[in-house]
User: Which sequence fits this backbone?
């Protein structure tokens, strides 16, 4: 590609207000979807996270890994049962979940960040009791709901200039208990405990759409509740918006549901007036530069 040096310089200059706005801010990013299985997309995501850290943002990456878990369960011959569309996570399944998320997936992301010149440390909700859970639904087995958060370890990593990469596996209230936690839920709980400036939920869709199928760039919690009651927000978007509302209640300044397939989606959202998805917050619509 032929690059225009003047355009590059102009872009950097226009980004200054946003760089100043987010200096020192905590941004929790839920990473998942198709990008996790694509090396080029993984490298691009890692580069964006390293750039965020370089300009003074404190990013926390929380990841999923459903397709990788499904693949290993299949190869091991472990069959999954489902209740109301949700996987029952028995002891054998949760052991596979922990192996895949804290081992394979977590270390791939850490390595990608390191390859782009950043410093990263992989951990799970078990480390330093970062995330302590109870069973979310007894019928689902070891599927956890965070009830206690201990985020000092993340602040210690920030202070050391290190990017935390968190696998959504948690300890329980009882000894030797392990829980699988939905990635969005884990990201929301971590963002709430940190009182993060932003929670970015990367998805494989463009954002939250209204009844006409148009992506909404700005939504209030009240609108989310009404759209859900009307059936406009449905399916897989419901748990994401529920996570967003809970995170806002716990002190996160704004939550953005954005399309992780868009190149440099996180940078577009944070450092331009265009944004890259649907922002949910309680204050007035976006301004230039956007403030929360």
Assistant:
């Amino acid at each position: 590609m032929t690059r225009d040096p003047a355009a590059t310089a102009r872009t950097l200059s226009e980004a200054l207000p946003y760089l100043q706005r987010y200096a020192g801010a905590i941004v929790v990013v839920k990473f998942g979807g198709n990008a996790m299985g694509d090396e080029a997309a993984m490298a691009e995501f890692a580069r964006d996270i390293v750039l965020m850290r370089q300009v003074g943002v404190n990013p926390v990456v929380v990841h999923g890994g459903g397709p990788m878990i499904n693949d290993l369960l299949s190869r091991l011959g472990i069959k999954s049962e489902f209740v109301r569309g949700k996987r029952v996570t028995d002891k054998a399944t949760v052991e596979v979940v922990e192996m895949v998320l804290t081992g394979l997936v977590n270390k791939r992301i850490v390595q990608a960040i390191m390859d782009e010149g950043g410093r990263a440390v992989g951990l799970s909700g078990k480390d330093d009791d970062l995330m302590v859970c109870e069973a979310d639904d007894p019928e689902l087995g070891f599927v956890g709901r965070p009830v206690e958060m201990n985020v000092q370890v993340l602040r210690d990593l920030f202070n050391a200039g290190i990017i935390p990469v968190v696998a959504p596996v948690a300890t329980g209230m009882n000894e030797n208990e392990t829980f699988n936690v939905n990635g969005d839920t884990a990201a929301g709980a971590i963002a709430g405990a940190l009182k993060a400036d932003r929670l970015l939920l990367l998805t494989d869709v463009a954002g939250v759409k209204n009844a006409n199928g148009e992506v909404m760039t700005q939504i209030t919690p009240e609108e989310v509740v009404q759209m859900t009651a009307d059936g406009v927000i449905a399916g897989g978007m419901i748990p994401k918006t529920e996570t967003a509302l809970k995170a806002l209640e716990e002190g996160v300044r704004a939550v953005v549901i954005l399309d992780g397939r868009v190149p440099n989606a996180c940078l577009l959202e944070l450092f331009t007036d265009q944004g890259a998805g649907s922002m949910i917050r309680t204050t007035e619509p976006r301004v230039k530069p956007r403030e929360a």
Notes: The chain has a mean pLDDT of 89. The longest helix spans residues 91-115.
